[in-house]
Specification:
The protein has 60 residues and is an alpha+beta fold. The protein has a domain of 29 residues. Helix content is 13%, strand content 13%. A two-stranded antiparallel sheet has the order 1-2. A two-stranded antiparallel sheet has the order 3-4. A hairpin with a 6-residue loop joins β1 and β2. The N and C termini lie far apart (50 Å).
Length: 60
Amino acid sequence: MAVPKRKTSPSRRGMRRAHKGLSQVNAIENSTTGELHRPHHVSPDGYYRDRQVTDQRVNS
């Protein structure tokens, strides 16, 4: 079993994890209103999978 010889410092660990937030957020177009939203999330006007699930503005 591989065992590290020294403990990884918080700085080195942070450098390895620092690139997760750099990816671009994927957005799809809502077929009902044409607004952009993240996949599998409620669109800004309250629609999810072509049905209105709330009458309030979401993520505005």
